[in-house]
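Show me any protein, fold above all:
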Amino acid sequence: MSAREVGLPMTISTDGLPAAVTIWEVGARDGLQNEKTVVPTEIKVEFIERLATVGLPIVEATSFVRPEWVPQLADAAEVMTTLARRDGVRYPVLVPNERGLDRALECGATDIAVFGSATETFAQKNLNRSYDEQWSMFEPTVAKARAAGIPVRGYLSMCFGDPWEGAVAPERVADAAVHLRDMGCTELSLGDTIGVATAGHVEAVIRALIAKDIDVSTVGVHFHDTYGQALANTLAALRCGVTTVDSSAGGLGGCPYAKSATGNLATEDLVWMLNGLGISTGVDLDALAATSAWMAEQLGRPSPSRVVRALTGTI
């Protein structure tokens, strides 16, 4: 069954929302990094290539971290050198430091991201650095990439809650975002790593960034759906001027360093909502759902995405 067969959602636009949203697809990286078993390289490559054909402008490919940190992505170099890249599609990769950047550049990466933390405990667990020390680790990496003409995204984890420290103050997130902006990051992504954000909290964090003169057009949001709030939080962010949303095909993903983190916002669920609001994404929902259903077959389990299950008859 396709979206056209079941009937697309009625399109009713509302005031205060953008005309278009850029979807930053993270399924191949953030989704697969949390799998209990390693997905074969050829399956990862096919997944990325399929995602690049459905209208997604950005398909995050992999992460050049040390294999012992994230063994599921130990084949980063092979993925990047095997991948048939599509014109007009960006394929960002994550790097932890200069060594990771060098490896990524050797494989032809043209977009990179660094991943910081808004909290002390997660910085230590995820990066083996203190909150303050992480910035000095990122600075030479960002500087080297920018000198090479490469845009750099700065991810911030634990922007709304931390399993060890509890709720995170919006002002703390804004201060961390300023660090990334000032060192040269061209884009920022606010991560709700354990999925505890609610709409009012999202608005407060974005207001805190605006108060620090951070341009909202450079900000993306990255919500996990642990408590079923990801779509509501996304809508709140859009009303605040955000126009970039991270999501994962089929709702894959989590975080290997935060065990309470469940799947990301499913790209199909996001597109369904945006279609209903008359917001353009350029994404072919049927083709995307078919790709996610195929990936679910490779993983041997149903897709977590409600829209994928509805469109493929696997509810």
Q: What stands out?
A: Residues 255-261 have pLDDT under 50 and may be disordered. The longest strand covers residues 112-117. Residues 69 and 126 are 9 Å apart (CA to CA). The domain at 3-312 is CATH 3.20.20.70 (TIM Barrel).
